[in-house]
Amino acid sequence: MEKILVLDFGGQYNLLIARRVREQRVYAEVRSYRNVTAESVAAEGYKGIIFTGGPQSVYAENSPKCDKKITELGIPVLGICYGAQLLACLYGGKVSPASHAGEYGKVEFTHGDDALFKDVPELSVCWMSHTDSITALPECFTATARTANCPVAAMSNGKNIYAVQFHPEVTHTEYGKKILGNFLFGVCGCKGEWNMSGFLKTSVERYENALKGKKALCALSGGVDSSVAAVLLNKAVGKNLTCVFVDHGLLRKDEGDKVERTFRGLFDMKLVRVNAADEFLDKLKGVTEPEKKRKIIGEEFIRVFEREAHKIGKVDYLVQGTIYPDVVESGAGDAGTIKSHHNVGGLPDVIEFDGIVEPLRYLFKDEVRAVGRELGIPEELVSRQPFPGPGLAIRIIGEVTEEKLAILREADAIFREEIASAKLCDNPDQYFAVLTDCRTVGVKGDARTYGYTLALRAVSTDDFMTADWTRIPYELLARASNRITNEVRGISRVVYDVTSKPPATVEWE
Ligand code: XMP
């Protein structure tokens, strides 16, 4: 399989670069500059290497560097922003603070004749974000593009090393896709054959062989990732896979039954559903502190899962729905400090397995969804919005009770129904209701009411690290509010959350 190495120097767009490459049907993987050597790069047989941007100056003490030999393997290299400056440094050029205090945002650039700019108009817009600039070209390199303030907006050695000061991976760069495509297809000679049906076929074959006669266990949450992982493994090993679905009683309206119906009916899977609502609610009794709720739910989940796993007997492999951003964010790339992702909190420590199977480890979320569609998983499940592991417990402020769960389930279902039927051209990426513990006075008929305040939340985001509150139409909010206060007993007021992340988080707890 042809693949591109995205060598990560700590830039904020490292994953975006890999995505942009994969969108052109070439497989790309992100590796930290710390974890590669010229020998390891040569052994992997990459068709091309992209140096990412990074927050540092190349001359700063301890700034990220790599062995020049990596660029001497004969593999084409494209440096972006910091990556371009690093190439300039490695080859004896000069980088200095830009004379105009850097360039940020959309800037016009012009280019000369160069493979990278084939079929790109002579004048177009690129996205710049740099404080330093290349001020003296290395020997054997020529400047191939310029902006008003940046004489070396791109350079190349006319053979296999290319560099751009701007960010072709960002959509604001008008011809960014074309420029990356020129590198992938024109320079590296890629064919662009990476697709999800090919991925699925090879994955199923691989697991059919590797897991022959072995028993596997999958913790199924009903979310996209664990569902796709489970169906893929089911296709490979059939009844040797057992899925355990723990219904903790904190799911949305009808969710548990829907998950069960899909997996038993459509895929004839060996599925154990554990109804543990009483157990979870008992443990949550009187608990109001958000972190404590999360901890209790996490621990309880492991206990229930462990109990069920022991009933099943000896299991060789644990199947997890880990996806690529989880892997990179956990330190495989250079963005290890963002968060340490854990799937189903430490299961391997409490149950003995010979190994862990992560069939989606190298896929982005939209690729996982595409695999799900290839597998025939219903659209409703494949395109579902994220739902937190602790479920409605962190959307009920204060103590979680059955009464509050029932109120929230109904109100949340109405809000989701209204969003779905409005068919907005820009659907929010996540939307739900939150039951606050604030009660307020209302009037129904001629009588006073005293019910809960319900908050509606809808956010638009690419990565859930930051998010903006979605400007959904007033009419939709009016309909949802009207229906909720009429149809759900116990709610006397509905408010809409207009806070972005940061400073708020997506979930209220
Ligand atoms: P926050 O609230 O941190 O949420 O801004 C960002 C995204 O993560 C989801 N989320 C979770 N997902 N387990 C999960 O699987 C959790 O404990 C959890 N907490 C938040 C949240 O729904 C949003 O999509």
Give an overview of the whole structure.
The protein is an alpha/beta fold and 509 residues long. The chain contains 15 helices and 20 strands. The model is unreliable at 331-346 (pLDDT under 50). It has a 9-stranded mixed β-sheet. Strands 14-13-12-15-16 form a 5-stranded parallel β-sheet, with helices on both faces. Strands 17, 18, 19 and 20 form a 4-stranded mixed β-sheet that branches. It has 3 domains: 3-187, Rossmann fold (3-Layer(aba) Sandwich); 196-382, 3-Layer(aba) Sandwich (Rossmann fold), CATH 3.40.50.620; 394-496, GMP Synthetase, Chain A, domain 3 (2-Layer Sandwich), CATH 3.30.300. It is globular and about 80 Å long. The chain binds xanthosine-5'-monophosphate (XMP). Xanthosine-5'-monophosphate binds next to loops.
Hetero groups in this structure are: xanthosine-5'-monophosphate
Summed up, the domain count is: 3
Q: Helix tally?
A: 15
Beta-strand percentage range: 15-25%
- CATH fold-level name of the largest domain: Rossmann fold
Largest sheet, if any? 9 strands, mixed
CATH A-level architecture of the largest domain: 3-Layer(aba) Sandwich
Q: Which CATH C-level class of the largest domain is it?
A: Alpha Beta
User: Could you say which structural class the secondary elements and strand pairing correspond to?
Assistant: alpha/beta
Q: Return the average pLDDT rounded to an integer.
A: 91
* Number of DSSP E strands: 20
Strand order of the largest sheet: 2-1-3-4-11-10-9-6-7
Low-confidence stretches: 331-346
Overall, the morphology is: globular
